[in-house]
Amino acid sequence: MIRRMATLLAGSVSGQLVTLLASFLLTRLYSPEAFAHLEMFALVTGIGAVVGTGKFEQALMLPKDEAAARSLFWAGQRSVVVMVAVSLPLLWLSAPWVAEHWALSSWFWLALALPVFLAIAAHSRLLEYWHHRNARPHQVAWSNAVGPVGAEALKLGLSSWWGVTGLTWGAGAGLWVKWALMFRGMGSHCRALSPFSSVPDADALKAYRSYPTWVLAGSVMNRLAQWLHVLLIGAALGPVMLGMLGLARRLMLQPLSLIAASAAPVIFKSATDAADGPPLIRLFVKAAAGLSAIAAGVWLLVILAPDGTTAWLFGEPWRAVMPLLRLLAPWFVLNFVAAGLGAMFHRLNRPRWIAGLDGLHLLVVLVGWAAGTWFPSWFGAGEWQALEGIVWAKSIYYLINIAALVVAVHSHRHAHR
Questions:
Q1: With contact defined as beta carbons under 8 Å apart, do 140 and 131 qualify?
Q2: d(CA 55, CA 48)
Q3: 3-class SS at 204?
């Protein structure tokens, strides 16, 4: 497990280092409004990447039988097609309203291409888990390293022509580069399991019917809870604050999320190979300790950074990002730990726990926003009081999530294998 995780982390860290270095230039070339467009794009593609597979990628690790795994891959590809067919009219018809309500002047033209980017993001996730199932971490690591290089290079190149949307088109290009590298050598496999062909083994899918139902429903609620702040902050405080939030996410949450996304399949694969009882508990403790150490180091770095750090790094217009980072740090690091360990719920065969926790996640975010909006004195007066309410609510939720996973691991006796 350690060797595969190290390979994936090397790719993820390399890609995020490129992203961080490019930020020093991009914040001087693009306005907060451009980052607001990028944040809304990340919201849509982030939800589409997870929902668009029908969650069949999460089940790919479980069957020992290769025929069952191929059926799950087929189902995942069909889900991508269905997601694109459903999202296309919704995105195109809603584009003028989104542009007006969130003050995103160029959103309409981005929305026309969004269904393609949704398909690319979702299919990349499906391919990634197939590579993990077959112990090919190097291909995943390579795509995680090279994808950001293509994205950041195009963002820099487009700044002179598309000052508002160049960031977003560059991000879309990065998704395509990552998908192309994931797809390399997989063409015949994907064609053999074409979503337009008949299912290879319908009976095998029945054993995993909780994934497109309970697990998918939970993922929808979880993604909404994760990204609701974009809609709420953008609508309430405008595109400038949304752009500030976008840079904060780019600096801290995005690198942590990518590391967690790289670690989760490795932990999952190792957990499926581990026997129930003490071996599984030892694996969980080792993974939790490693992720917690990374989280603590990042949090300490943000706390100790001088107040003017973001102004010095990115320019004076971005000074307000530093206090914003300190506010968001508990949410970001706890999200990182919970995301890295979350796949263990699938190893323990607890889909209803997942759905219940994801429903709780959405509920606490809504309650946190309401508390910050209607009772700002609870968090101290100021324009960010609603955001403070969300941070408190999300931090409490992630602690509950981690505690529930500890209970599940220690009480587990048998999982569907």
A1: yes
A2: 11
A3: helix
Question: Which residue blocks in 30-65 are alpha helix, DSSP H?
Answer: 32-51, 56-59
Q: How far apart are the first and last CA of the chain?
A: 19
The pLDDT mean for the chain works out to: 87
How far, in Å, CA of 267 to CA of 261, rounded? 10
8 Å CB contact between 341 and 354: no
Torsion angle in degrees (nearest 10) through CA of 166, 171, 172, 178 = 150
Structure-token pair, residue 322: 């530093």
CA distances from 50 to 57, 222, 332, 336, 406 (A): 9, 10, 19, 17, 24
Q: What angle do CA 46, 292, 139 make, to 5 degrees?
A: 50
Q: What is the dihedral of CA 374, 375, 380, 383, to 10 degrees?
A: 0
With vertex at residue 187, the alpha carbon angle to CA 183 and CA 192, rounded to the nearest 5 degrees, is: 130
Whole-angstrom CA distances from 374 to 1, 377, 381 are 47, 9, 11
Give residues with Cβ within 8 angstroms of 282, minimum separation 6: none
The dihedral sign for the CA sequence 385, 386, 391, 396: positive
User: CA–CA separation, 197 vs 190, rounded Å?
Assistant: 11
Q: What pLDDT does residue 19 have?
A: 84
CA count, 13 A, side-chain hemisphere, 316: 0
pLDDT tens readout for residues 87-130: 999 999 999 999 998 889 999 999 999 999 999 999 999 999 99
Q: What's the burial of 237, exposed, middle or buried (CB within 10 Å: 0-12/13-18/19+)? A: middle
Tokens of 88: 């296309």
* Residue found by looking up tokens 């975010």 in the block: 365
Q: Provide the 3-class DSSP secondary structure of residue 297.
A: helix
* Helix-helix angle 166-183:107-133, to 10 degrees: 20
Instruction: For 137-158, write each residue's pLDDT tens digit.
Output: 889 989 988 999 999 999 999 9
Spatial separation of the C-alpha atoms in residues 246 and 263, rounded to whole Å:
24
Query: Tokens 């999200």 identify what position?
Result: 335
DSSP 229-256: HHHHHHHHHHHHHHHHHHHHIIIIIHHH
pTM of the model as a whole:
0.77
Tracing tokens 């993974």 back to the chain, one arrives at: 287
Q: Is the distance from CB of 243 to CB of 87 less than 8 angstroms?
A: no
Residue 242, amino acid: L
